[in-house]
Amino acid sequence: MNHDELRDWSKRAADWAHAYHATLRDRPVRAQTTPGATAARLPERAPEEPEPPERIFADFEDIVPDAMTHWQHPRFFAYFPANAAPASMWAEQLANAIAAQAMLWQTSPAATEIEEVMVRWLRDALGLAPHFRGTIHDSATTATLAAILTMREIATGWQGNEAGLAGQPVLRIYASAETHSSIDKGARIAGIGQANLVKVPTDASHAMDTAALDAAIRADLAAGYRPAGVILATGGTSIGACDRIAETLAVAKAHGLYTHVDAAWAGSAMICPEFRPLWAGVDGADSIVFNPHKWLGAQFDCAVQFLADPVPQVRTLGLRPEYLQTLGHEGPDRITNFNEWTVPLGRRFRALKLWFTLRAYGLSGLRRRIRDHVAWAQELATVIADLPGFEVVTAPVLSLFTFARTEGDAATEALLARINDDGRVYLTQTRHAGRFVIRVQVGQFDCTREDVMAVAEVLRDLT
In terms of DSSP bridges, do strands 428-432 and 400-405 run parallel, antiparallel, or are they unpaired? Predict the structure, then answer.
């Protein structure tokens, strides 16, 4: 394929995409396939000779769409959304065409500087203090890993990278049991170890018990361990649990510990001032992450990390060998090389989709969507609570709540299987307080109130 052919087939792909999104409501949300079925339709080996675009595209249409779970389906209420607003897709087309490697300022000046400005736009839109700077990662998992690595380096006196962890005191990280599994993964990858990620008990509101946190830190100090950092949650993945940020930060700071706030999903809602009490005190954190790809419409992948002071993270992650020098532009405050802020050296031009999305919908349009999603989730929870044989187990936190059948776990699990086999909506599960419960999370960019209330219709039909 050459660029002339690409022009024609790009138009064909755009027409296909338009038809795909226009007919999503007619498709089952979750893939109706079995493991191995797609692979069995592909040849065992790559072709020796080039194949015509017509055949390639025909195979795509025949094999791929029906074997995909449709994340842009307006009745996708599982996990959290990975949205792709039309303006974001438009930007991604252009970023893909430019195909830049945005590792250094000099390799992509516009990508670097637009990223700096987009982080400031989002900082101000979320009501964060002006001292925060930041960067764009692929996902919150990577941002959290960067924060944990920074905790490790500060706690070891910057010896972890240089000398390794052998001979160092055992490091300890603290988080509640409601935090995402990415914290567990970060502790493992950073060499701190799963056993040294201390899961602090939660209270009746599902927030980290700050007295228990203080006691755990003091007990570890007495045992000869070295506390390294505290990770807090605003909108935990399972049920939306929110730590009391100001109170928990006060405990962490009293012990001189680096802090990171995981607001991957709920952070987007903070463009609405009325939801900011959920993370009151967040300006005291050292690091914050949220994913615009979850609820603001930016196409996956796009996670923004705000840093009160970037220097510790850059010192932890940054390397500048001779072949990465930007000759003629080095020096304090001259340029930013974002590869030094993140784990990968290579970086995509992710800021472009933020620029397009924020301009195409405006903060007012994005706020309206989020407020609608929250209101519709609350309305749906009320309806489900009134259905015979159903119980809302955890009340809505923003647009996330859980419910179950009153008969118990087996009935709830069987119902979830019927729901997802039915195909009209897609829901997923979690365990809370030992119970199997079904999560509902409203956040797909193009969903309507009718789409959300379809959940109740499906429950009535299937019970």
Answer: unpaired
Phi-psi region of 218 (alpha: psi -120 to 50; beta: other; left: phi over 0): alpha
Positive or negative torsion for Cα 273, 275, 281, 284: negative
Distance CA 329, CA 106 (A): 9
Q: At what angle do helices 140-155 and 181-189 cross, to 10 degrees?
A: 50
* End-to-end Cα spacing for the chain: 53
Segment 260-296, tens digit of pLDDT: 999 999 999 999 999 999 999 999 999 999 999 999 9
Domains, the chain, ranges and CATH? 101-348 (3.40.640.10)
Strands 400-405 and 435-441: antiparallel
State the amino acid at position 373 in one-letter form: H
Tokens matching residue 416: 């979830």
pLDDT tens per residue across span 288-344: 999 999 999 999 999 999 999 999 999 999 888 776 777 665 554 578 898 999 999
- What is each CA distance from 51 to 54, 60, 64, in whole angstroms? 8, 13, 18
Q: Which residue is listed with tokens 């252009």?
A: 94
Apex 118 CA angle, 114 and 120, nearest 5 = 120
- Contact (Cβ atoms closer than 8 angstroms) between residue 438 and residue 404: yes
